[in-house]
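pls read this protein:
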Amino acid sequence: MLESSDLAKKTFLDIGCGSGLFSLAARHLGAVVHSFDYDPRSVACKRELKRRFFPDDDAWKIEEGSALDQEYVRNTGTFDVVYSWGVLHHAGNMSRTLENAAITVKEGGLLYVAIYNDQGRVSRFWRKIKKAYCSGTMGRMAASAVFIPYFISESLAIGFIKYGNPMGHIRAHKTKRGMSIYHDSIDWLGGYPFEVARAEEIIRFYTKAGFELQNLTTTNRRGCNQYVFRRSVGQRHSSEAL
C-alpha cells in the first residue's frame, strides 16, 4: 500500500498499535517509531516486543494515549508515515479521530488508514450485535452462542467449496490472520464502539483536509476499506466532520 519496502530514516507513528506487531515491522524496516494505544495491556504487550527484539532502542518510543485526545496527539509531533489500521472507527467518535490522525502527518507525508466499510443495514445489524456482546455477561454469552457457531459453519462451507476440504479455509485463515476462527470471531463481536463509512466519504473528508489519495483497496464485505493519502505541501490543515 505504501509502495515501498524501505522505511529507513522515516518517522513512523502507529496510532492504536495494539500488540505492536506493525510497529515492530516498521522498526525492522528502519523507521524511527512512535507507538501509542489507549489499552494498558496493549502497551505492556508492545513493550515486551521491544524488550525481546529492540532492547534499549531510542528509535522506538511507546506510550499510553488516546486517539481522541487532540492535545496528546498534537504533542506527539508530525511524521513521515502515520499508520492506523482498523482503529479509528472503534474510539466512539470517528470524525474526531480521523481529524486527529491528520494533524500528525508532515507536509508530503503519508497517512495509511483502514476504516470499516459501510454496508447499510448489514452494518447497523452488526452494531446492535456488538453492543449486545459488550453490554455484559448475558449479552456476551447470547451473542457468542449464536454467532461463533455461525462463523465456524461459514468457514467449513467455504473450505469445502473453495478447497474441497472443510478445514481448508480454517487453516488458511489462521495463517493469514494469525489467529483461529474462534479468536477472530471474538475479535469481531467485541469490536464496539463500531462506526463505518463509505469510501467516498473518507476520500472527501481527507481531500478537504488537504490530502491527496495515493492508494485504495475497497471491499464489499464486512471488512475495512484501506486508504493511503499524501498530505499536500504548502496547504494549511483543515477538516470537516463526516
Remarks:
- The mean pLDDT is 94.
- The radius of gyration is 19 Å.
- The CA atoms of residues 130 and 189 lie 5 Å apart.
